[in-house]
């Protein structure tokens, strides 16, 4: 179609007008889209700022709490930093929300609430500095919690408002984002139709450029966000032209204004190292195809020190060597590492202090226990000796009070030591076979007498279905029962006490046994039933005044029961009278047990004190005069002879010069202590039994005694019975072991009947046999050597009567063989072999009889 110039001008003008209109419309859409994106970013900044404020409040709260716990001033720096951050964020919010009256009202409220919260922080810090108690701190902490919750609610409300705005702005942005491309495409197509083919390529090119520019812009924006988040900036450095280009984040890293043109020499001036070192490193790194990674320390123009990682690779391009790289700010990471190391060091120091304090406490308790037990040993020992004398009733009563007071003090020391062991986790629950029913009856027998003296009925109920032998730690079970029943006796003035031991179930090879202690005493208030298991705590203050006690017993009971796999509970009142008034208490717990084996019961009763089979000669080493005097009276009472020395050196000298049946050795003595003395005695090849007789009763002390070479340990204070049994155990146990190692040839039934089990007659008959055995064997040996068959035959026959007294079957059989050979006139060499065997067996029989005499 041929168009006139005028028509062409009109069409062109209309096209230009339409294009201009389309351009304007597109421009407005794009501006609207930019505006929408701006407000979306604006909303995100507000939300981030709000979250930062709440996060800083929590950080400040954490800092103040840390200071309150440790009084470490470094925690206050965390609070100060948070205060500064919040102030900056509030200023930012105020500017961001200046055009939003509703949100602006919340800013004012938020600022006031934040100020109130920091006021409460300061109050808590002041209370901490003044060492205020919990009653003063708790109300302030509750107010602080409410204030933090108020801040949280304000932040949440403002975030919700911003969320609504964000939703609206996102919708607007999405709408614009949809319409803008359509408008552009429509305008382009219409323009192409009007301006014919010649304009098509131009518009297509423009469209393509616009699209690429938009994509690049988006990618650059995303890249900038990523660099801000990771604190990483990128750069490009042309070595030949010495020109440097970098991303915006590099300005943040180096704390430079964006108007500053980056120069490599300026950057070098910020690095904290000699310029020559920097030059040499760069010369090494900037090689074609090379890559590098360096850690740099810089000081910015603002004076801040930072640690950076610089990574790069070198490319040989047309215009020279070009370094493409990235710089990462790792200052926060380094600070975190430093803080972690500092925390580890603080923890190490705290651990060392705690261990040192624990060791000090252990030494203190050990020393105090030793110093208290030493005089108590004398007090209780002399009291026991005096109680055997003829005394008036008043004197007996006074002695009993002294004894009870000493026992109570000893029990208190024991409880304190138990609490210490429990706190340190040093209580070991053993697993040994014991007869539960017999053991419980034995332990509870004294309580029946005590209850009877108070006019109380004492009932013991043991379930018959409980297995006889169980595996467990009965001494600890006994400790628990004695404590609970002792309390029941203490707090019950009338009525009864019932102890029940019941089998509740059997499961997976375990027997679950319930222990119940029920009394009709004063009971325990409901609000105090949890507190009574705390150390040094009783149901009320009047209890300790009226009934006495340290308040440690139930605390120990609870921990011991827990260690044995149970959980103690209390029920009070346990009974009700006709008027509905409650009284009494019930303590109960269940323990799991494996089945035990029948054997020597560790809880078996010890034999009563009786004269030793022979007079024992004993060495006593003790530096305390009172304890030496007590040992004198006690050993005299046991019928022993003894020598007493005052230190370990004297003990070593005495043990080397004399023979003793046993040595009783104190641990702490001047000149040379008991451990050193024991080691030296053992080095001297002396095997005399040594028992540590000491007020050091910790398990560590017992182990030290045994490690030094002692055979046993007896803690002070001790009774005459304790000393008797420890001597009997270590003196006669050894002799019985020696006797047991000798083969048994003899049968003592015949002479036991003849002596009617009288030990004196029995001993005399054994001694008579011993003499005859030696004389006859000597004659037989002489006769065989002299080849005197007549004398040999006569004395062999005499020896047969002697052997029949103890029914020594081997000797009787040999004698029969010898007599038959003599009668048959066999060669003397054949008879000699039997005679020598007879003599050897006779020697063993003599040794057996000698050992028997030691224990008769």
Identify the notable features of this structure and list them briefly.
23 helices; membrane; elongated; cell membrane; 19 strands; seven-stranded mixed sheet; Four Helix Bundle (Hemerythrin (Met), subunit A); Beta-Lactamase; alpha/beta; 14% strand; kinase; single chain; five-stranded antiparallel sheet; Heat Shock Protein 90; CheY-like_superfamily; 856 residues
For this structure, the quaternary state is single chain
Specify the helix fraction band.
55-70%
Structural class computed from helices and strand pairing? alpha/beta
Estimate nothing, just give the exact number of structural domains: 5
Number of helical elements: 23
**What percent of residues are in strands?**
5-15%
Instruction: State the end-to-end distance.
Output: 150 Å
Unreliable runs: 536-551, 600-605, 738-742
Looking at the structure, the CATH topology of the largest domain is Four Helix Bundle (Hemerythrin (Met), subunit A)
Radius of gyration from CA coordinates? 50 Å
Number of beta strands? 19
Specify the CATH architecture of the largest domain.
Up-down Bundle
* The first-level CATH class name of the largest domain: Mainly Alpha
Overall average pLDDT: 78
Gross morphology: elongated
Main sheet summary: 7 strands, mixed
